[in-house]
Fold this protein.
Amino acid sequence: MKIFLIFFTLFISFNILAFAGGETAKDVNHYLIQARIQYDNSRYEEAIELCNKALALDPQNKEALDCAEKAIERSRAGLKQKKSERKPIEFNMIVNTPAPYLPPPKIEKPKSDTISLKGAIEIGLENHLPIQIALEQIKLSRFKEKEAFRELFPEATLRWDETSGRISSKDYMGRKYQLKLQHPLYHGGELKFTWEQAKVNLKIAQENYDKTKEDYILELTKAYYDYLKAIRNFNAQEALLKDLENDLAMAKKEHEVEVSSLVGFLNVQSQYNQAYYSYLSSENSLSLAKLNFLQLLSLDQDDGVKIKIDTELIFKECAIDLEECIKLAYENRADLKINDLSLQAAEFGEKVAKSQQSPKIDLTGTVGKAGEVATPGKLRMSDDWFIGAKASLPWGPNTMNYSYTNENIAPSLTSFQPTKDSVHSVRLNILDNLVSYTEAQRSEVTRQQAYSDLVKGKQTAATQVREAYFNYQESALKVKTSVQNRELYNRELAVMKEKRSMNEAETQDLVSAKIKLAGEDINYTSAVIENKIAIAKLNKAIGIRDHFK
């Protein structure tokens, strides 16, 4: 009986081991198949990771070693940069020795302490073309307002004529000088309403300038902080990469003296390469952020512009009341002021259109002297004047015109006595007033559209305030969470360093802790900058720059 139990126990143990070995082989084959698929699709990082998983289960698997070596070579060939000479660490799977690598590259980084956000805004406002155009629009609107005001008063014209010629075989000369006056006595308020509309349009141009400026300042602020974030991310990735070089060198030595396994070294190498890829990505992001920032300043890449880095980048929480922000937006936003002024301008436009259907009375007159004489002879000047009135009365789609003139014409060579005329004239114009109905209808539609834009603008303003408010709350929460995570990861790194000094943790564990902390540092920077951008958006949404700081 005892012999039977012994054989039964051995049989069960053998089957369990065989089953476990079969599962391990199955997992290795699964990882190798997926690695080959990723390799064929040029996804070399994923292929390396899958090969490392296979090697963790079967460190002597030749197919996994070959696949990892090829993937690393292809990955290296695809990561050559024009600016960077640094190469990711490779491992020669055949001879089991690490491949050589070059020192970190010398990359030209932005110099500091030359231009701050305030200085950038000052430069941008001077160079931004839409702002200059908005200023020109103010000048044009001011000129139109003066022109409309001028139309309220009489128009005066001075005239001087000198004539000479030959008539009936005799030479003659003539002279005439006049002062001409014209005045719109009554136009149904059209001229006054036109002037009021021009004044409103001037205010619209001024508010449009403020809106254009504030839109640009927000865009520039975002670009400034994006550039600042890119600089900090690049510096963090570069510092991490330099730190990991020492850990990689240590892992190499440990593997050479067989203190650590090949899998452990490959994991450290994979972590280093991943950090290197992040470094290259941050370098590209820095170049793009700088380019975008300089473009907004209307400066070239080669202008040598430097950025002042806010080394503190302190998070300051603001006490914000959402309803109060919405109220401030209704009172201060430039776009809402533009909508309100546009409604006023449309109302004046409607009044102008209606006044065109009212009677119009215009006065005109000239006063002066004129004379002609045969040469040689003495020129005698006589009174020469004219007065007139013209009235226009819309009558449905037609117009009835009445005019009265009374004039005194000075004597001439062909008329030896002054000529006096008095003329009354009545004229009916058929279907010449259809345009007034069209203008009245157009002005009404314009007013309705302006009112609709005002209502929609208020809704949009409230939505943007709420969105900016919630973005601020979210970014503030991210900052607080990141602060807690940084404290936790700092403690974990300190513990890991202590364990590593007592050989209770491997190098790959220490590297993982460093990468984790560096990533959270980057997250903290991003969260603080998101918070600053959220505050800038909230200030823009309520229409008061620097209201929240």
Q: What stands out?
A: The chain has a mean pLDDT of 83. Residues 354 and 412 are 48 Å apart (CA to CA).
